[in-house]
Amino acid sequence: MTKLTPVLSAHWDEKDSFTIEGYKRHGGYNASAKALAMNPDAVIQLVKDSGLRGRGGAGFPTGMKWGFIPQGDNKDHYLVVNADESEPGTCKDMPLLMANPHVLIEGCIIACHAIRAKHAFIYIRGEVTHVARRLNQAIEDAYKAGLLGNGIDVVLHIGAGAYICGEETALLDSLEGFRGQPRLRPPFPAIAGLYARPTVVNNVESIASVPAIIANGAEWYQSMGTEKSKGATLYSLSGHVNNPGQFEAPLGITLREILELSGGIRTGHTLKFWTPGGSSTPLFTAEHLDVPLDYEGVSAAGSMLGTKALQIFDETTCVVRAVLRWTEFYKHESCGKCTPCREGTWWLVQLLRDLEAGKGTEADLAKLLDLCDNIMGRSFCALGDGATSPITSSIKYFRDEYIAHITHGGCPFDPVASTLFAGAGA
Amino acid sequence: MTTEVVDMITVVVDGFEVSVPKGTLVIRAAEKLGIQIPRFCDHPLLDPVGACRQCLVDIEINGRAFPKPQASCTIPVEPGMIVKTQLTSPVAEKAQRGVMELLLINHPLDCPVCDKGGECPLQNQAMSNGQGETRFEGVKRTFQKPINISSQVLLDRERCVLCARCTRFSEQIASDPFITLNERGALQQVGIYENKPFESYFSGNTVQICPVGALTGAAYRFRARPFDLVSTPSACEHCASGCDMRTDVRRGKTLRRLAGDDSTVNEEWNCDKGRWAFKYVTSVERLTTPMVRNSSGELVAASWPEALAAAAKGLKASKAAVLVGGRATYEDAYGYSKFARVALGTNDIDFRSRLSSNEEREFLAARVVGSTTTYLDIDRADHVLLVGFEPEEESPIVFLRLNKQVRKRALKVTAIATKLSIGVEKLKGEFVKVAPGAEAAAITSQSLNAKSVILVGERAAESAGVLSAVAALADSSSAKIAWIPRRAGERGALEAGAIGNLLPGGRPVTDASARVDIAAVWGTDSLPSAEGKSTQEIYAATNAGEIGALVVGGVDPLDGENSQSALAALEKAFVVSLEIASSAVTQHADVVLPVAAVTEKSGSFLNWEGRPRSFDAAVQDSLNRSDLRILSMIAEEMGTSINLGTVSAAIKEIASLGKWDGARASMSKVSAPAVPTVSGDQFILTSWRRLLDLGTLQQGEENLAGTARATVAVISPKRAGALGVVDGDKLKISTSLGSVTLSALVEDIHDDALWAPRNSRGSQLLVNLGVAHGAVVSVVKA
Fold it and tell me: What is the interface pTM, i.e. ipTM, of the complex?
């Protein structure tokens, strides 16, 4: 019996799932009609009751976030949808938008109604032109169908390619036309967000989950998931597996179950390590196969559920090499605002390159950990913290492998073995 | 007087309790206890940013501890807060040491050749909160160094710790966001927009607040080590803002000047002119010995006794008058004032060596002398009206204060002017556009109240009826008036009575009891009772043969509208000139007496508020004497002592005068004349002096001059269309006296008017055209 609960992804395999007709065929835009007839506060209450938590990584209760918007303040309110999906390994929002952009638009209508906003801005990462085009077309179609433009407008904004703009306040700065760098909080976006007005910033998947909740009720949503992590969500499986892709399942499913559903690890290989929620969440190993993948379960095991980006690495992978690549990413994407992240990632890369090349010493390993300690919790935003996670967790589980690089005078792995074309013959 | 009630919050820092006003940041609460938390991006006058992360501390509130160290520069105190700094928290100590190490990994080790070395917050805090040895063995980030971001500011990106103090200052304080942070990550850097240099009048402040040697001033670069400098608190002599300053001297030579801290006046800022224009003292050929014109008409060096005897003899021989420029110190002006009355027996004295009027003189006596409007009134005003005054150009610290209130609480600013200026635009001011000469009517139609402030510039005297209208508006609305002259000494000279209608302390010369007051202190039987002549009247009387001798100190005869008359008078009269360097007066002088420059003497200026800004000699070994001392010596030689041998004697005597409690002088109303109508190629000229121009005190400062605004002639779009002129076309502007040719700039200006800078390169209106405001000029496309 399958444990999958396709809601968001229910009709992705239909040819016209991304069109307004395809969406309407399965009751699309009925939820927004229902919500618009409701009192906004009742909508917020319903979302609160459903237990929906933010799918961007932090897991903050969505209804509570909406409830923070001051009402009756005679100010414009804004909804901002964070579609700047840039974390290495994270790949749920883009497929969702490719397959069903209208569910996001419907979610925007409902959310705008609830928080009494007239404008929603969707901030999408600049590199995904095909997704932006599709979403743009969907917005245009929704306007033509009279679903938008009657008091609620949706604007699509295309970013210029910076990971930091996924951080909500940097996103707001970027949206306002400034360089994307995180803002000092307080004031929080709920009080002074976009253009210093009360603003809700939600992840694509969070907003896209709302129409189904309105349509089916809070109890239906509550019936899925675990005690504190309600509902179903998209798990993005990638890496050394036979069938990578999106698996929508109730929160609390385990990697073992997902691997069973998906056809398992690359044939002939064994699981070495994996990320539960993208590269900024501490690594897991085979011993964590039965950790329930909900906010509490992953946290209790020492990592974070994050974006549920399950990147699977088998035994052919050099963990030092993988960690170095991620670290290079964080160095490249550090915005430069604060010292620990800007200078720290610069130094981390140099240390890791030496270690990977076999030029390191055991003392360097201690230095590396101490450096991570000086970055983690010292940086302005979570980017710096995230940059240290793969390093500290990999040294925790694979210290011997780091040492092997030192004693071996270089990487003991054959990098080709981990590739897709390994064994294809030279 | 009401006192504001401030909520106090008590917090514990490192085990010590401290009570601070609500809203105080943790880092400042700690400072109050003497606990110094290291910091770079934090600056008390800039919005918190929390970027450098150097000031991390452990904080708990009512028993709940933050899970990680917090930036103490961003968090306000809260009741029940317990703060543990690096002194008591090992976590905070390690966090700070870690951040310091990270700041240093990419910082070049060029302290031995860095201007900041020895006074560098990075160097100092690396010693106090860092570790002796680096663990970094990698490759440092390098940049080309240094690069010019303006002709006076150099940027060394390798040294930069990216604290964003400079960019925040430029945006938040000066409203000149000409520098920003560019790029990202470790490549983040301060930069300018392509081909748009950092041409802000306040750019020098960024050099001063840079916590490392990333921003340096071109003029000071590689000139000195901080520990070789002798610093003296001083006051700025450039304008009437009254900035507190610090003058740094090495071996008798001023090498740099910095803004001093005075929260009531300039806070911690100054303008680039105040900071970087001081070489006029050394770059020009200073007069070193007295000179006397001999029988063959040549000026020859003379001994002091010889020169003093010649001066005394000439001054006794005929009726004499005194012309003292607006740059004399308060004490020197007092010396001139007393010298005129006691030694020369005349009220013919005027400090206004510029365009002025008798309406202005009456206004100064009736409304300005003794007035107590201050910066605080700007802070509290609901509406500020600018009349004949461009704050950014003519009193930059007044501009910063207005800008602060505009940013903080949207203070309403209204400017009655012919042309919309950059400064008023930055203040988001309401621009009331008038033709030159039509200001008075616009003033009358303003509605103000008792919380409003009218800031009147010295240029208000250039349109008849304006000051009468200001006085009437103040009377009808109870708004406060502040008169803000350009020159640093004018308010002091007014208070000292260096003007024909007033004795010291605002006592009208026509008031018998006022004369008795002063005569008693001065120990003379009587004082002249008739109102004295103004600058223009003195020149005219000299040319008419009524006055035969002139004592001239710090005056540029070309600063007036009728310089032919001035030069003729100087040629005709027996002239005793007190100057620091050879000038247009020297050529006509009969006795030349060298005096001390402002850095070589002590004294004070009264800024526009009337607030004393006293200073000591920054250069200690100068042999030059103050004007006061020399006037005293001449008076002795003339047989009528004025007893002002030293500055302290003058200060004592001024203090002994007491307050004048008699009636103020009154002011007669002057109506505005009709504004000329212009057509065809005729325009009404209007102008003001830019902050950076050809001013005498900016001589020798090429780096500073490089950031002066472009010299342009501004006309309205309508008139430009009629003339077929576009931006950049040349306009020839002529009067009967001469012409200037300038690049056109089409902007928001009254259709009848043409604006040009009064004394900039290529545009010296008083010299070239003989007029500066309100006169009809003819304009053709050249």
Answer: 0.95
